[in-house]
Amino acid sequence: MSLAGKTLFIIGASRGISLAIALKMAAEGANVTVAAKTAEPHPKLERTIYTAAEEIEQAGGKALPLVVDVRDEDSVKGAIDKTVETFGGLDTVVNNASAVQLTNVQKTDMKRFDLIHQINTRGTLVTSKFAIPHLEKSENRHILMLSPPLDMREKWFAGHTTYSIAKYGMSLVVLGLAGELRGTGIAVNALWLRTVIATTAVKNLLGDDAMMRSSRSPQILADAAAAIFAKPAREFTGNFLIDDTFLAGEGWMDFDQYRMDLSVPLTPGFLVPEDIPAPAATGPVEA
What we know:
With 287 residues, the protein is α/β, with parallel strands linked by helices. The chain has helices at 16-27, 49-59, 73-87, 110-135, 161-181, 200-206, 209-213, 219-229, 243-249; strands at 7-11, 31-36, 62-67, 92-95, 141-146, 186-192, 240-242.
C-alpha cells in the first residue's frame, strides 16, 4: 500500500533510528509528527524536533514538531489530538522513546529505574492507548514498537536487569495489544535490530568510533518499517521481527549497503534470540 498522504506519529523522532524512519516516510510523501522532548540541542546530541522537521520537509513530507514528554499522559494525548487536527487523521504510530541504563541492580538508582520504566514501557502503553481511537478510522493502521522478541533467558537480564525489563515491557505491550486489537484491524508489531546501529547516541554515550565502524546505518530499520507499514494491517499483526531476517523475507538481497565499514565484522545487537538466524547475505558478525 502507498504511504503517500499517510500520517505517522513518531515518539523520539528528533534523531537516530526514529528520524531515519521519519525521513523514509517523508520521502514517500507522508505526514510526520515529530514528538520528543528535544526542543533545545543536547551538548553531545545536536538535533532537535525542529531540525528534524526541516529535514522531513526537505525529504518531501509534511512535518509537525511537538514537544512531548511521554511520561505525561496529557502531553501525549494533546500531541495526538493536535496531529489529527493538523493532518486530518492518524494512520501509524511508532514507539521508540527509550531510556538506557546498562548497570546491574546494585548500581541502579531507583529514581533512574522509575524513569526508564515510565519512558519505555509506560510511555509505549500510554501513546498506544490514546492513538487507538484515531487509528480505528484509518484504512490501514499500524502500531510499531522498536523492541525485541520475547526470549526469557538469564543472559539477557544479568548485568542490566532494569533495561532488559523495560525493553521486554514494550514487547509485552505488543503481545497484549495485538490480541486486544486483532478484531479491529489495527496491526501491532515489534521491530528489532540484528546489529548495533550507528547513531550519535551510540557514538557519544555508549561506544566509540570503532563501534560505529562495526555498525549498520539506521536506514535498515527505516526500510524495514516502511515495508511493515505497506502491508495490509489485518493480515500482518502480532509479529516480533528482526530487521535483516524480515527484509530478506521481503526480497532484500543487498545488506552491505547498510554497513558503515565493510572491512570490519558487524557488532551483534542486544536481546537477539539465537533461534532467529541471520540471512546469508548479512555478512560477518562478531561472536
